[in-house]
From TrEMBL, chain A:
The keyword Iron appears for this protein: no
Domain ABC transporter: 6-239
Family annotation (InterPro entries): AAA+_ATPase, ABC_transporter-like_ATP-bd, ABC_transporter-like_CS, ABC_transporter_ATP-bind, P-loop_NTPase
Pfam families xref list: ABC_tran
Protein name (Swiss-Prot/TrEMBL): ABC transporter ATP-binding protein
GO molecular function per UniProt: ATP binding
Family (UniProt): Belongs to the ABC transporter superfamily.
PANTHER family xrefs: ALIPHATIC SULFONATES IMPORT ATP-BINDING PROTEIN SSUB, TAURINE IMPORT ATP-BINDING PROTEIN-RELATED
Entry keyword set: ATP-binding, Nucleotide-binding, Transport
């Protein structure tokens, strides 16, 4: 699928609180233009509305103010051109790895043989060919998250949304998967929007880093990383940027 | 050694029983020896009485279970999947299940007599309740995150039902069927005891007690326990198979 620009046009979101019926503002006037093929990181403390923002883009929540445009058209509901990787991998426990990846293709227009081919390619993309027959409870958290990434990519979406995908993993696995995600992003040439609370991860992967602040969730500033991919973690400019962004949270 | 520890108490009891009979601690005619029970068992098996009685009971048990489980699955699906169905039928069912199973006996015997039909109706009621409750619960409690995955990939209502909700509810549905199987076997004996007529292992028990033949009563109890244990093991085995098929939930 051709990458498309993603435009958040003054998006705000209120929830009605179930206990007292009062409106709670969760997002306030989010404005952001994301170029086709760009890697955007969104960092913010928990509770500042990052997941909600992704759910709006994904089309799981349809009530909000403002507009979300993909390729110039307002999004309506969910669509196969937008993929997602949730923090909890959300694999179906009764399906093996191969079939979990194929879940994404259930309603794709591809013929059955082509679907099988696509699933094989994505198993290879995330390096899990040997685990195709394994069930989710038989694989590690890192592998489950790779399966979820493969499932999110099978439709060749123009945008892949990632909601703290590595948040529950140990540091070594997380670093390895970050490298892998960088490689996949370069290879697939799609837009990625990564939500994280790990500033180092945000800076390492993002072309731009959107810093959010809470109550209500809004954009504090947008940092241009401006370094070519693939990047080295030890790059002094990355380290400096990380400290700069961390400063936003420390003096808040 | 550990695996056999559970046998210790029954073996000690058996030994004590045998000693007590051997040394004549009880002169009562209601006291029988293990040897007598064994002789009765051999006679019942050889004469074919056991197979007639057990066959009749099992046939009843399985047909009642099949009817009750079938209706239970259908009703459980209505309650678990349809908000309207739940509003219409939920309160009635919840009241219905509060009525003790045995309280239905008088009504059933008036409507259906004391024969096989009445017994099968009673058994199917016994199987129905746990199947409905667990099927409806399983379908209602499918994790929302998984249903969201279905929405993300544009699943139709039918696809979400067959590819997400049913498989997610399967362990709970299976628990219901498992309980239904156990309950209907217990109810089989109850039905034969309360709706007295015809053949059945419960009737063997009644015969024994009416003729003060404790050997027959004890033999009947052993058979009932063994069948219950076998049904239980079979259901366990099926459950484990299912889990292997679907991974652990
Ligand atoms: N469905 C909902 N109804 C009411 N409040 C919600 C709902 N979903 C999220 N919220 C609230 O919105 C705020 C932002 O949540 P979330 O987007 O999950 O934040 P983050 O992902 O940044 O941690 C939180 O205060 C949360 O309690
Ligand atoms: Mg979140």
């Amino acid at each position: 699928m051709q990458a498309n620009s993603l435009v958040l046009d003054h998006v705000s979101k209120h929830f009605t609180q179930p206990n007292n019926g009062a409106a709670l503002q969760v997002l306030d006037d989010i404005a952001l233009n994301i170029a086709p093929g760009e890697f955007i990181s969104i960092v913010g403390a928990s509770g500042c509305g990052k997941s909600t923002l992704l759910r709006l883009i994904l089309g799981l929540e349809s009530e909000f103010e403002g507009q979300i445009l993909l390729g110039g058209r307002a999004i309506r509901g969910t669509g196969l051109e937008r993929g997602i990787v949730f923090q909890d991998h959300r694999l179906f426990p009764w399906l093996n790895v191969r079939d979990n990846i194929a879940v994404g293709l259930k309603n794709s227009p591809l013929a059955s043989a082509a679907k099988q081919q696509v699933v094989r390619e994505h198993l290879a993309l995330v390096g899990l060919e040997r685990f195709a027959e394994a069930y989710p409870h038989q694989i590690s958290g890192g592998m489950a998250q790779r399966v979820a990434i493969a499932r999110g990519l099978v439709n060749r979406p123009s945008v892949l949304l990632l909601d703290e995908p590595f948040g529950a993993l140990d540091a070594l696995t997380r670093a390895r998967l970050q490298n892998e995600l960088q490689r996949i992003w370069a290879q697939e040439n799609i837009t990625m929007v990564l939500v994280t609370h790990d500033v180092e991860e945000a800076v390492f992967l993002g072309d731009r880093v959107v810093v959010m602040q809470p109550n209500p969730g809004r954009i504090k500033r947008i940092v241009d990383v401006g370094l070519p991919h693939p990047r080295q973690r030890s790059d002094a400019r990355l380290v400096a940027l990380r400290d700069d962004v961390l400063g936003d949270f420390l003096d808040a | 050694m550990k695996a056999y520890r559970g046998w210790l108490l029954p073996l000690v009891a058996l030994g004590a029983w045998w000693l007590a009979s051997e040394y004549g601690w009880s002169r009562s005619g209601l006291w029988v020896s293990p040897q007598q029970v064994l002789a009765t068992a051999i006679h019942e098996v050889a004469s074919g009485h056991l197979w007639v009685a057990l066959g009749a009971s099992l046939a009843r048990d399985l047909s009642g279970f099949a009817i009750g489980a079938g209706l239970g699955l259908a009703l459980g699906c209505v309650l678990g999947l349809s908000a309207l169905g739940n509003r219409l039928l939920g309160p009635s069912f919840n009241t219905f299940k509060q009525v003790s199973l045995f309280a239905w006996i008088p009504l059933i015997s008036v409507w259906f007599g004391l024969g096989d039909v009445a017994k099968v109706v009673f058994l199917s009621l016994a199987a129905l309740v746990p199947v409905v409750v667990n099927t409806a619960d399983g379908l209602r409690n499918v994790p929302l995150p998984l249903l969201e995955v279905a929405r993300v990939y544009g699943y139709s209502r039918w696809q979400s039902l067959t590819l997400v909700r049913l498989p997610a509810a399967l362990p709970s549905i299976f628990t219901g069927l498992y309980l239904g199987l156990i309950y209907s076997w217990l109810a089989t004996i109850g039905a034969e005891y309360l709706l007295v007529s015809g053949e059945g292992i419960g009737n063997t028990l009644i015969d024994g007690s009416e003729h003060f033949r404790m050997d027959l009563v004890l033999f009947g109890m052993l058979v009932i326990g063994t069948v219950g244990w076998l049904l239980n093991s079979l259901a366990r085995l099926a459950e484990r198979r299912l889990q292997r098929l679907y991974g652990t939930f």
